[in-house]
């Protein structure tokens, strides 16, 4: 499922991901982007290898010798059963035609789209931890409300495109914005844009009407 992604994961997030320091939702976005992007897969592998090398350099803790009798008893019981084969999950009909990254597929089971606003639908993915993950579908050509951020926002495009002051994002591209960013995404006119959106906190909308609606939409 590799694409030529033009927007990649920052070094800081790569290191945090390899160290296991990110939330489940953030890990989902990064792992999903890596299915599109060879470059970021290699960077993740390098960071994990470096972390492993650093662990190997730490002083070793003495390990008690194995229980030989217990090992022999297990061998006498016969070979272990083969690992259970797991087929890839079948996506619900609501997502028919969507080529979802493998890390995302399990989160779509038993879920469907819900209308958030005219031209906007969402699926709340139910990840654990402080950050939230949603699959969003935007109608072609719509302009989203201008807003800033209270925390990190990750947006991975799956289909279609959008653009803002930071550039144009197409399938496989990952946008990484923090509290310093302010933007107003505009969806490409040719087709729906489906994106995985991960946020640490609700956005800061410019217009009062959106701030009043925020408790009901959760974004």
From TrEMBL:
CDD domains: cupin_ChrR
Gene3D superfamilies, alphabetized: Anti-sigma factor, zinc-finger domain, Jelly Rolls
Highest taxon above the source species: Bacteria
Residues that span the membrane, as ranges: none
Every ChrR-like cupin domain range: 109-199
Pfam families on file: Cupin_7 (PF12973)
Full protein name: Anti-ECFsigma factor, ChrR
Species, as recorded: Insolitispirillum peregrinum
């Amino acid at each position: 499922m590799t694409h030529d992604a033009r927007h990649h994961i920052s070094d800081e997030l790569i290191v945090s991901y390899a160290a296991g320091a990110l939330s489940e939702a953030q890990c989902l976005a990064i792992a999903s982007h890596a299915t599109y992007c060879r470059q970021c897969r290699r960077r993740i592998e390098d960071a994990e290898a470096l972390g492993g090398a650093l662990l190997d350099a730490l002083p070793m803790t003495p390990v008690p010798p194995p229980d030989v009798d217990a090992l022999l008893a297990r061998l006498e019981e016969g070979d272990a059963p083969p690992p259970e084969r797991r087929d890839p999950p079948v996506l619900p009909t609501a997502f028919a035609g969507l080529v979802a990254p493998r890390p995302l597929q399990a989160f779509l089971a038993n879920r469907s789209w819900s209308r958030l606003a005219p031209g906007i639908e969402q699926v709340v993915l139910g990840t654990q931890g402080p950050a939230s993950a949603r699959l969003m579908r935007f109608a072609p050509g719509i302009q989203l409300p201008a807003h800033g951020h209270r925390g990190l926002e990750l947006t991975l495009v799956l289909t279609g495109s959008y653009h803002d002051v930071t550039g144009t994002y197409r399938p496989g591209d990952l946008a990484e914005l923090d509290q310093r960013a302010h933007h107003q995404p505009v969806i490409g006119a040719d087709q729906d844009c489906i994106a995985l959106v991960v946020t640490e906190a609700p956005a800061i909308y410019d217009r009062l009407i959106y701030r009043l609606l925020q408790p009901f939409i959760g974004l």
